[in-house]
Amino acid sequence: MPPLLEVKDLHTEFRTGAGVVRAVDGISYTVEGGETVAIVGESGSGKSVGALSILRLIPDPPGRITGGQILFGGTDLLGLSDAEMREVRGRDIGMVFQEPMTSLNPVLTIGRQITETLEQHQGADRAAAGSRALELLSMVGIADPARRLKQYPHQLSGGMRQRVMIAIALACSPKLIIADEPTTALDVTIQAQILELMKSLTLKLGVAQIVITHNLGVVARYASRVNVMYAGRIVEAGSADAIYHDPRHPYTMALLRSVPRLDQPRRARLDPVEGQPPDLTRLDGGCAFRPRCRFAVAQCAAAQPPLAPVGDGGHLSACFRSAELATIQDVAMRDGPAREVAA
Predict the structure, then answer these.
(1) How much of the chain is helix, strand and coil, in % rounded to 5?
(2) CA-to-CA separations, 318 to 89, 123, 290, 322, in angstroms, rounded
(3) What is the pLDDT of residue 341?
(4) What is the pLDDT of residue 187?
(5) Which residues of the chain have pLDDT under 50?
(6) Which of 256, 251, 243, 160 has its CA nearest to residue 215?
């Protein structure tokens, strides 16, 4: 049986005054029905652009999807007309955006923003849509839903607005939800509540989910598979267990080492990822991560390493030294962050 979603060699670029930015540069991955897949990386790595490409929400100009396929239920979304794509958005694929205050319409009530989706995609009348909206707000844990339906976004807290966004995404019982940094603007306690809510609802309803995040704690708890992105490419992919316990790309290792861990001895300082993400208009033919990499060798400047198998269970890494990293990282973790491992 084919996967629910299959992204094949997707390319998305933006034309700017400084040159062409290849924000998504040939990524490929799948999402099975009912599973949660995480896409991880720093700001500017291409995570959100890849998600918006799936829904064909890239503004043109300056952006455009220049190649690849996005197969959803066997249908290539890139081959659909604009009208057909509008039917897919909301009905078959829901989206939870980063900042609900800029995603919700400030001049429409919460109830109208939910019922509009139901009327558009399911042909529901006002009474049926209102009843479903009430049910959805209850489902996402909003108290006194009948009163909240009549309120406007500015009258709700950040956590409640994000719950409304989740209700809108679930309104038409989609097969897939894309959650783009769904907890960015929320405090830690509310973040945990929103993530637990999304996990419980997707399990209960059997909905597949793509979670886009830079928070590795989210990955550990909520995702079954992980794609790590850097400079528009997937540099490592595999199960959450493989990514956490046996990372095979220096970037993944650096992300993990920069996060405080309760199961490791207390250290005087964290070990941050040194340097800055690259300028995507000035990439050369080598590995984009090598200026920040502790393990770079001459080969890394000569060519881009392919995303290749490094173990069982579909674990992939785009690094010329991935076979050595299992030993190298043991030494690095034992001797602490101050020691540089010679290339």
Answers:
(1) 40, 20, 40
(2) 33, 47, 12, 8
(3) 37
(4) 81
(5) 331-343
(6) 256
Helix (H, G, I), strand (E, B) or coil at 324: helix
Which pLDDT score, from 0 to 100, does residue 339 have?
A: 34
CA separation for the pair 26, 68 (Å, rounded): 8
* HSE of 67, CA atoms in CB hemisphere, 13 A: 9
Residue 313: what pLDDT?
83
DSSP string, 106-174: TTS-HHHHHHHHHHHHH---HHHHHHHHHHHHHHTT-SSHHHHTTS-GGGS-HHHHHHHHHHHHHTT--
Assess contact for 281 and 19: CB atoms under 8 A.
yes
Cα–Cα distances in angstroms (integers) from residue 6 to residues 3, 63, 165, in the given order: 6, 22, 25
pLDDT per residue as tens digits for the range 71-107 = 999 999 999 999 999 999 999 999 998 888 888 999 9
Q: What is the pLDDT of residue 67?
A: 96
Check residue 343 and give its pLDDT.
35
Q: What does the chain come to in residues?
A: 343
Cα 95 from Cα 207, distance rounded (Å): 12
Please, which residues have CB within 8 angstroms of residue 278's CB and are 6 or more apart in sequence? 231, 288, 291
How open is the CA angle 182-184-188, to the nearest 5 degrees? 100
Which SS3 state, helix, strand or coil, does residue 26 take? strand
Whole-angstrom distance, CA of residue 184 vs CA of residue 213: 9
> CB under 8 Å to 248, separation ≥6 — which residues?
236, 310, 311, 315, 317, 319, 322, 325, 326
